[in-house]
Automatic annotation (TrEMBL):
Every BAAT/Acyl-CoA thioester hydrolase C-terminal domain range: 33-136
UniProt protein name: BAAT/Acyl-CoA thioester hydrolase C-terminal domain-containing protein
PANTHER family (UniProt xref): ACYL-COENZYME A THIOESTERASE-RELATED, DYNEIN AXONEMAL LIGHT CHAIN 1
SUPFAM superfamilies for this protein: alpha/beta-Hydrolases
Biological classification of the source: Eukaryota, Fungi, Fungi incertae sedis, Mucoromycota, Mucoromycotina
Source organism superkingdom: Eukaryota
Naturally occurring in which organism (per UniProt): Rhizopus delemar
One Pfam short name: BAAT_C
Gene3D superfamilies: alpha/beta hydrolase (3.40.50.1820)
Biological process terms in GO annotation: acyl-CoA metabolic process; fatty acid metabolic process
Length: 139
C-alpha cells in the first residue's frame, strides 16, 4: 500500500473518524518513513499536544513517534497528552461541545472525538502546559 485507506475511515455510519485512514498509511513503513518530517534536524525545544480520542488523525501516536525520534538524538521535547479529549483542543473557556461537524469540502459529517468535559479539560490543561513550556524555553 502506498497511501492511506480512506475506505477504512468511511466504513461505518456517520459521523466518520478519519483516524483509521491515517493509521492505515503506517502499514507501508518505507512510504511512511519517506513522508516523515525529519524532526531531529531542529535542535531547539519542541512541544507536542495531542488528544487520546482524536477522531481526525492519530495525534497521540504521531506525537509519540516525534518524541522517540527526538529523544534518540537527545533533543528537548515535551508532550502534553489530553486524556479523553478529541481533535478540538484549543484555548480555555471556549465552547467544547462541538464533537461532530461537516467537512469543509466534502460535507461529510466527521467525528472529532472526545466528550465536552474531556475537551474542556484538554483546552485548559494544554493551554497551561504550553505557557509553562514557553516560559522554560524563553529562559
Amino acid at each position: 500500500m502506498r497511501s492511506a485507506d480512506w475506505e477504512a475511515a468511511y466504513a461505518s455510519e456517520p459521523p466518520y473518524r478519519q483516524t483509521h485512514a491515517f493509521l492505515s498509511a503506517t502499514r507501508d513503513s518505507a512510504a511512511f518513513e519517506r513522508a516523515r518530517i525529519p524532526v531531529e534536524n531542529y535542535p531547539g525545544p519542541v512541544m507536542l499536544v495531542s488528544a487520546s480520542d482524536d477522531g481526525f488523525w492519530p495525534s497521540t501516536a504521531y506525537s509519540e513517534i516525534v518524541m522517540r525520534q527526538r529523544q534518540a538524538h537527545g533533543l528537548p521535547t515535551f508532550h502534553h497528552l489530553c486524556m479523553g479529549a478529541g481533535h478540538h483542543v484549543h484555548y480555555p473557556f471556549l465552547p467544547a461541545t462541538l464533537i461532530s461537524k461537516p467537512h469543509a469540502m466534502s460535507g461529510l459529517l466527521l467525528d472529532a472525538g472526545g466528550t465536552p468535559a474531556a475537551n474542556a479539560a484538554g483546552n485548559e490543561g494544554s493551554y497551561m502546559a504550553v505557557l509553562e513550556f514557553l516560559g522554560r524555553a524563553a529562559g
